[in-house]
Amino acid sequence: MKKLYILLISGFICHLSYSQIPLPQNLPQTHPRLLTISGYKPVVQKQIETEPWAKEVKLGILNRIDPYVAKTQIQPDWLYSRLMMYWKSKATNVYIRGGVYSHADGKAPVPTVRFGSSRGGASVYSRPEIEDIIPYMDDTKGVYFHNTKKEGRPLEWGEQSNASGIESINEQIMGIGKDAAFIYWLTDDEKYAKFAFDLFETYMTGMYYRNEPVDLNNGHAQTLVGLSTFEVIQERILNELACLYDFLYPYIKANHQDKMDLYTATFKKWIDITIKNGVPQNNWNLHQAKFILKVAMVLEDNKAYADSKGREYYIDYILNKSSARQWSLTKFMEYGYDPDNGVWSECPGYAQGVTKDLTNFIRDYDNTFNQNLLPYTPVMGKAVRMLPQYLFPNGMITAFGDTHYNTINTEAFSDMIRMSQKYGDKENENLYTKMYRLFDPDAERKSEKPEKLPPQIYSFFTGKPLVLDTNIERGKLDDYVTQTFYAPNVSWFVQRSGYNNKENGLMISQYASLGNHMHSNGISIELYGKGYILGAESGRGSSYFQAPYLEYYSQFPAHNTVMVDGISKYPEMLSNHPFDLLGCYPQSGQLTGYYPDITYSDAYFLEPESRSDQNRFLSIVRTSETTGYYIDIFRSRKQREGDKYHDYFYHNLGQELFIQDSKGQPLNLLPSDDMAFAGGHLFALDYMWDKKSVITDKDYQAVWKMSTPDNNHIYMNLWMKGYPDREVFSIKAPPTDNFRGNHGVPYEVGKEPFLTIAARQYGEAWTHPFVSIFEPTTENGGKSIESIQSFEADTASNDFVGLIVKSKPGRTDYIFSSVKDEKVSYNNMSANATYVMVSEGGKDFIIFLGNGTLVQARGFILEANEKTNAILEYKNGEYYFTCDKPVTITNARGKEKVMEKTVYQKITL
């Protein structure tokens, strides 16, 4: 037992030593030190003398600040009097009620810094330009801002709680001060030093007397609040203040040394609050760390302070220490990243942002300290390499949760190239250069003809152009994007087919709700077709704090999913409701050795509000290089019975939606009020309008038409199996706001209704599931599917689904879908599997066994002792085969051949 104890302790110590990051050595003892060091000044001066880009950057900075400097030469208080301060009241205590400003009290000996207005709420009043600000503005009536609700946006008094931009004014003014401090450092012209110091002194002295805001509601807001704003992650002004102080340090020490203790005390109080408050488990932690590091860099060593809290203390806190709301870099990354696949545990937009911010942090930290953090953060390589997995074939990322459709962010690739070049890592330089060239269309131009640098200080220090090795060629998409990819830490699975073909690629992105910035959406999907994300996400609305987000955009009816009894709901944002992946093909991340024309996933979800079992089976079937279709079989039932109804929602891009019977004749839909909040259902249903419905037990179809300027219009064709007690709705839903900038969509998608079909199954939807076939097509290409019908199988349970899909030219697919371990038979075919497809076209055929033990067709029997995936294809007189586990193949003559696990390859039978 003693030996075991020693082993456990040893392992614990080893873990601690592994996760500790050593502090940087030889910290600079002079200022500046944040962006540069004092010895670098001659280099910058020489650049400005000899290099046109440097002259332009300096000129741009001077053009921005000189008009203000000139005004203060005549009237010294011209600019600092326009800071947002409690000029008259000199309040020390700020009070909020949740995310809204309440009031301030207390009395300081000097004017103090005014707090913000609200946390993300819609405001009537917006900030004026600096020139329009009333000097020493401080009135019981509030602030003198623009009234955005009146024509001409006149300036008038409004309540502080209803005015946005207070913090941005102070941030802008301090940014001007920072620029002036840099020009002073560069030129030794004291007019710039005096100008910057007056701003800094007024603000920092005022903040010295300000206390941490108090939430009168004693709520969550108290744990988020910063010293100047409602969220510690919005304390961007710290960047300006730290940089200003760093460049101005020699001037302050020479002329105002008596104030330096006050300034450092203010900085430390500020970042102590930043450590104390916030959110540790998501992107907030990193944003907080960036602000803390900037301030820590301009502090002196621990020994300079009575409390021993100097720059080493705060740097070590960021890297290695953890508290309730600020975790160490290592703990933060261990919590958020899946070590197996590098996926960050937030929605894609935030996830790739965190990865980019981390590589920025590692890059900037290295620039400052010459210390490479990558060996201490080994998951970063996987995190950067997985980013292309988010992509649809048109180069847009999947947009589940609080994400917008956009291209991949390639800054992480360029950061990794810079780090690889600096440390001579040719292997990784080769890897990331290939990725950068492939995924950033401007990579070549940026390398050969660098972009014009902005007129900002950092252009002299951190904005140096990236130079790519001309011997490294562009990478291949197949090396970074796989047929399937599963991220269990965000409950996301993707299937692709022909993904390197923008026009004809197919892709399903499916997800539940696990991680941060997620929606309440059950098992939801996006579908791709003909160059567009047709079955798109609705987005998040204008703000997380507004009713449309809370009541509609984050809720079930805004997604392509199934809602139970009108009540399906659970916490959005940070959510813990994943699906269980029961089976898939091919294996996640498999690069080679699979059959390329069929993929599938089988997922189970427990819908918690109604306590319902939900099973969603999804498959892509590729029928030619330019054609293919999706299968979607969604089963849903309450565990304790008493099902009222289950609603299947599907939203698709397009200006027109036609709902028809199986022969293409319009269904007689009539206005309906049945799908609504009334009756104890979700508010989301009342956001939809123009609802029409019809009850039918027959098969039906829906066609979305997206008209394009070239008249090669895009269609999504949906066929659904009919069942008794089925009601079909056409609905206009709120616009999707996910295509910001439209991204090539040929109509103003953000202003037009999102055309939606809903299928309501009265009673349970397990033995009457939602059975759908989707085929994206174009006007010129036409439909490849000729007919779809269902069939009943012998000895099958009542939740079995059988389909026959006939396509051009002469192809017939027989589809078996089952959720039970049972043998079923139809038309000389037998199966015991989650998914079986038997495809025939002339003499050629495909026998696909998905998560099963038996399929018998075309004179062959494929049988396994364990559930497996297996494919036997006969094409042009030759046999091809693959399986995940041992399978016995028996031909019509009874001859057996045992196949061990094997990649897709030609075989002899």
Description of the molecule:
With 909 residues, the protein is an alpha+beta fold. It is 25% helix and 29% strand. The chain has 16 helices and 41 strands. The strands form eight sheets. Strands 31, 32, 33, 34, 35, 36, 37, 38, 39, 40 and 41 form an eleven-stranded antiparallel sheet that branches. A hairpin with a 2-residue loop joins strand 34 and strand 35. The longest helix has 23 residues. It is globular, with a radius of gyration of 31 Å. The N terminus is likely disordered.
In whole angstroms, the N-to-C terminal distance is 59 Å
Largest sheet: 11 strands, antiparallel
Q: Give the strand tally.
A: 41
- Helix fraction, binned, reads 25-40%
What is the CA-based Rg, rounded? 31 Å
Shape: globular
The number of helical segments is 16
> Which class do the helix and strand fractions yield?
alpha+beta
Strand fraction? 25-35%
Uncertain spans, ≥5 residues at pLDDT below 50? 1-18
User: Roughly what is the average pLDDT, rounded to an integer?
Assistant: 94
Keywords:
eight-stranded antiparallel beta sheet; 16 helices; globular; single chain; disordered N terminus; 909 residues
Summarize the structure.
With 909 residues, this protein is α+β, with helices and mostly antiparallel strands.
Task: Present the secondary structure layout.
Blueprint: H1 2-19, H2 41-50, H3 52-74, E1 85-86, E2 93-97, E3 100-105, E4 112-113, E5 125-126, E6 143-147, E7 155-158, E8 163-164, H4 166-187, H5 190-208, E9 214-215, H6 237-255, H7 260-276, H8 283-298, H9 311-320, H10 329-336, H11 348-369, H12 379-385, H13 411-422, H14 426-439, H15 443-448, E10 484-487, E11 492-497, E12 506-511, E13 513-518, E14 524-529, E15 532-535, H16 547-553, E16 562-564, E17 573-577, E18 580-585, E19 598-607, E20 612-622, E21 628-638, E22 645-651, E23 656-661, E24 670-671, E25 689-695, E26 700-706, E27 714-720, E28 726-733, E29 754-762, E30 765-778, E31 785-791, E32 801-807, E33 811-817, E34 824-826, E35 829-841, E36 844-857, E37 860-875, E38 878-883, E39 887-890, E40 896-899, E41 902-907
Parallel strand pairs: 2-9, 5-8
Antiparallel strand pairs: 1-4, 2-3, 5-6, 6-7, 10-11, 11-12, 12-14, 13-17, 14-15, 16-22, 18-19, 19-20, 20-21, 21-30, 22-29, 23-26, 24-25, 25-28, 26-27, 27-30, 28-29, 31-32, 32-33, 33-35, 34-35, 35-36, 36-37, 37-38, 37-39, 38-41, 39-40
Helix pairs in contact: 2-3, 3-4, 4-5, 4-6, 5-6, 5-7, 6-8, 7-8, 8-9, 8-11, 11-13, 13-14
